[in-house]
UniProtKB/TrEMBL annotation:
Protein name: Chitobiosyldiphosphodolichol beta-mannosyltransferase
Pfam families registered for this protein in UniProt: Glycos_transf_1
CC per GO annotation: endoplasmic reticulum membrane
Organism: Salmo trutta (Brown trout)
Function: Mannosyltransferase that operates in the biosynthetic pathway of dolichol-linked oligosaccharides, the glycan precursors employed in protein asparagine (N)-glycosylation. The assembly of dolichol-linked oligosaccharides begins on the cytosolic side of the endoplasmic reticulum membrane and finishes in its lumen. The sequential addition of sugars to dolichol pyrophosphate produces dolichol-linked oligosaccharides containing fourteen sugars, including two GlcNAcs, nine mannoses and three glucoses.
Residues that span the membrane, as ranges: 7-25, 31-49
Record localization: Endoplasmic reticulum membrane
Glycosyl transferase family domain segment(s): 311-454
Gene3D superfamilies documented for this protein: Glycogen Phosphorylase B
Membrane topology: Single-pass membrane protein
Catalytic activity, as annotated: an N,N'-diacetylchitobiosyl-diphospho-di-trans,poly-cis-dolichol + GDP-alpha-D-mannose = a beta-D-Man-(1->4)-beta-D-GlcNAc-(1->4)-alpha-D-GlcNAc-diphospho-di-trans,poly-cis-dolichol + GDP + H(+)
Pathway in which this enzyme or protein is active: Protein modification; protein glycosylation
GO molecular function: chitobiosyldiphosphodolichol beta-mannosyltransferase activity
Amino acid sequence: MADASASMTLATISLIGFTLLAGFYLTTLNLRWTLVSVTVTAVLVTQLLRKLRRRDALTERRVCVLVLGDIGRSPRMQYHALSLSKHGYSVTFVGFPGTKPHQDVIGDERITIIPITEVKGLQVGPRMVSYVTKVILQSLQLLLVLLKTDVQSHILMQNPPGLPSIVVTWLVCGLRGTRFIIDWHNYGYTIMALSHGPDHPIVRLAQWYEQLFGRFSSHNLCVTNAMKEDLQNNWNIKATTLYDKPPAIFKETSVDLKHQLFMRLAKTIPQFQVCGERPGGETERTAFTGRDPSDLSVTLTSGRPALLISSTSWTEDEDFSILLKALEDYEGFVKAGASLPSLVCVITGKGPQKDHYRKLIDTLSFEHVKICTPWLEAEDYPVLLGSADLGVCLHKSSSGLDLPMKVVDMFGCCLPVCAIHFYCLHELVKHEENGLIFKDSEELSEQLKSLLWDFPGCEDEGKLGQFRRNLRASGGQRWDQNWDQNVLPLLTAP
């Protein structure tokens, strides 16, 4: 039905174009042909709008969730889709394929994923030509995809990236009478400024584009109160703050589940194996856990290393040389005789700078610190967070106005963090309450030293234990309640 409607729409648009061209030619002949041309064009445009806006009984229960990026690496948009489904909406999820989405998204019969291709512009000539052609081709593809879907009550779009999706989505919403919601995760132009510089013409154009067309949405969501104020004060855009909150899957992991995960990881990741012991032996042991063959009980080993975890998109707003330098200092502390455990540092994620940092990691020669950079399935990631001893966040917002979702997930697992300072981080990380905030590698290394002193004896004592207790006591709102309070009223409003 949708494909047939899209074909009719394209045919009508083509006919309108032909009529306009013919009319332009015929107007040079006499006034009669001018009137005929205008009349035919008006009739065709009216018919087109009727087709585009044709609604049925289910239209108000359909929502499109759009991200011009990898769906599997867009957790907040996946949570939006799941929340919509729980409230009985049929969800069309449009985005790039790549990383496998969470199983709950894949298995939800109300969620239909429509993959779109990340197109490339012309690969010859100046970079500007390549960029412009990419935007044009991506716009045409997105326009066709959105017009092929059934009429939606709302389109909920992630920004960034907003070029060209804001304009295309606004156009489709205008043609079809659909309400347009932008979920502001950050500003696209500030991310572009990391590689091009703030004064580059493309960056200035992107800023103008976001500021102008961002005002055309029906509603706006954003991730912090600081961003809400910035949107209102500088761009005259009114937004509702929807803080990232962890879904129920992020929680502390039981010892049995830790062992099961560590056993799976030990098959391919040497850092999880017992030193000098091959996986798959007669005893079930990992670097952190062991199963007693007599009663099959699982315990954490007394001399285990501390498990440090950091997740990243390996982009320019995260400087992992800070962590590597801090680990180098930590190695020095242990060699100098400090009462500190060995460390296994797990850095998860995919991104453009991963190969660069892996090469740096390969040059390091540590005796007491081991580093691995695996990619985890969506189902394993929360289990690993709930199994870790300490989290590290190196996310520095390009705008200074968004918050790292990785810390939100860590707090859902009652995992204390050390996070690098930037403006508005205080909305999430409370220094000396649920974690520590640092400014450089030296400060981070000292924090690792103080938190892990006499580990694992300090696990339930000292600052590390105190932070865990505070996180448990604070509990906090989960995604579902937060979404119901802030987003559902926007969808049901007249």
